[in-house]
Write a structure and sequence with these properties.
By secondary structure, the protein is of the alpha/beta class. The chain is 47% helix and 14% strand. The protein folds into 2 domains: 7-157 and 335-351, Rossmann fold; 161-329, Glycogen Phosphorylase B (Rossmann fold), CATH 3.40.50.2000.
Length: 352
C-alpha cells in the first residue's frame, strides 16, 4: 500500500487494506516518518516500512535535485526490498510518497492499481498512467487520463455513517462551515465578516463553524458577541453528526470533502483551495457545480457578503437546496473500499 503524507492519502488506503485482510490476504504499507501514516498506519494495526523521499514540484533547483536523487536511491532500495517482501501487487493513492514503491513495482513487472479520487490526476498518477493495471476513479472525466478499458468508477472510501444519515429533523436552518481539520483563513475571515450582515437582516440561521486551532480563540469570542445562534469550535470530532444537522455546507473541494458531501447528499458551497496541486480542487468543484450539486466560488472572490448572499438565496429557495443534495448523491459510491479491494486482489491473483 503506497501513498502518504496526508490523511486524504492514508485513510482511504487503510479502508482498502482492511477489506483486503478480510478477504484473507496480507498488506504492508510504505510511507515516511514525517507523514500522518507514521501515526495512523500502526494505530490501525498494519506494518509500515519507512522511506525517505520528498516532493519535486514548486521547489528550488537544489532541493529538487536532492529530492530526485533521493527518489532514485529509494526506488533502487525498494526493488531490493521487493525481493524479500514478494508482493503480488502495489496499491497506490498517488503523491510523492508513492513514487519509489510504484516505480519498483513497474521495474519488477508487478501490477499497479491506483486510486485517483480527483477529477484531474496528480502528477505521480499522470506519469505512470500508461503502465497501470487498473485505475479506480471518482469522476467520469478522469477516464481520459488512463488507457481505455483500465478504469472503473469506484469512488473514494467514505465512512458508512455519511451514507446512513437520516433526513434532518427540526425547522431551523443550519450552515456548517469547515476548512478542514486545520481550518481555512479565507473561510474563517468570510464567516466573521458575514456575522453583522446576518444579524442586521435578522435571518434565522444557525452556524456550526470548525475554525482550526490558530483562529479559534479570537473567532469564538467574536461569535459570542454577535448573539447569533450556533457554535464555533476548533475541531469537530464527529463530522457525520455535524453533517446531519446541516442544511448547507460551506467547505473546500478536496477529494475527501466532496466524497462525503455526495455520500450524505448535502448541498454545498465549494471554495477550492487555490494552491492545490494541478488545481485538482478547482476541477472537483467544477464537476459538482456543473452537475447542479453545489455552488462554487473562487478563493479570491470569497468574502462575507458573498457568503451572506448565497445563504440568503438558498434559505429562500428550499426546492433548489433539495435538488442540489439529490444531484450530489449521483457522485456517491457506497462500498468503494470493498470494490477496490476486490479489484486489487483479482489483479494480484492474475499476476501471481
Amino acid at each position: 500500500m503506497a501513498g502518504g503524507g496526508t490523511g486524504g492519502h492514508v485513510i482511504p488506503a487503510i479502508a482498502v487494506a482492511r477489506e483486503v485482510c478480510r478477504m484473507g490476504h496480507e498488506v504492508l504499507f510504505v510511507g515516511t516518518e514525517r507523514g500522518v501514516e507514521n501515526r495512523l498506519v500502526p494505530a490501525a494495526g498494519f506494518r509500515l516500512e519507512k522511506i525517505r523521499v520528498g516532493g519535486i514540484k514548486n521547489l528550488g533547483i537544489t532541493t529538487r535535485l536532492a529530492s530526485i536523487w533521493r527518489l532514485v536511491a529509494e526506488t533502487i532500495d525498494q526493488v531490493v526490498q521487493f525481493g524479500h517482501w514478494e508482493p503480488a501487487a502495489v496499491f497506490s493513492m498517488g503523491g510523492f510518497v508513492a513514487g519509489p514503491p510504484v516505480l519498483a513495482a513497474l521495474l519488477r513487472g508487478l501490477p499497479v492499481v491506483v486510486m485517483e479520487p480527483n477529477a484531474i490526476p496528480g502528477v505521480t498518477n499522470r506519469w505512470i498512467a500508461r503502465w497501470v493495471s487498473r485505475a479506480l476513479i471518482s469522476f467520469e472525466e478522469t477516464k481520459r487520463f488512463f488507457p481505455e478499458g483500465r478504469t472503473e468508477v469506484t469512488g473514494l472510501p467514505v465512512r458508512e455513517e455519511f451514507f446512513g444519515l437520516q433526513p434532518k429533523a427540526g425547522t431551523d436552518f443550519t450552515v456548517l462551515i469547515t476548512g478542514g481539520s486545520q481550518g481555512s483563513r479565507t473561510l474563517n475571515n468570510a464567516a466573521r465578516d458575514s456575522w453583522p450582515l446576518f444579524r442586521e437582516a435578522a435571518l434565522p440561521v444557525r452556524f456550526i463553524h470548525q475554525t482550526g486551532v490558530p483562529m479559534f480563540a479570537a473567532l469564538s469570542a467574536q461569535f459570542r458577541e454577535t448573539g447569533l445562534a450556533g457554535e464555533v469550535t476548533e475541531f469537530i470530532q464527529d463530522m457525520p453528526a455535524a453533517f446531519a444537522q446541516a442544511d448547507l455546507i460551506v467547505c473546500r473541494a478536496g477529494a475527501g470533502a466532496v466524497s462525503e458531501l455526495a455520500a450524505a447528499g448535502k448541498p454545498a458551497v465549494l471554495i477550492p483551495f487555490p494552491f492545490a496541486a494541478d488545481q485538482h480542487q478547482l476541477k472537483n468543484a467544477e464537476a459538482f457545480a456543473g452537475a447542479g450539486a453545489a455552488r462554487m466560488s473562487l478563493d479570491k472572490d470569497w468574502n462575507g457578503m458573498r457568503l451572506f448572499e448565497i445563504v440568503r438565496d438558498l434559505f429562500n429557495n428550499r426546492e433548489q437546496l433539495a435538488a442540489m443534495g439529490q444531484a450530489g448523491r449521483k457522485f456517491a459510491h457506497p462500498g468503494a473500499a470493498r470494490r477496490a479491494a476486490e479489484i486489487l486482489v483479482e489483479t494480484a491473483a492474475r499476476n501471481h
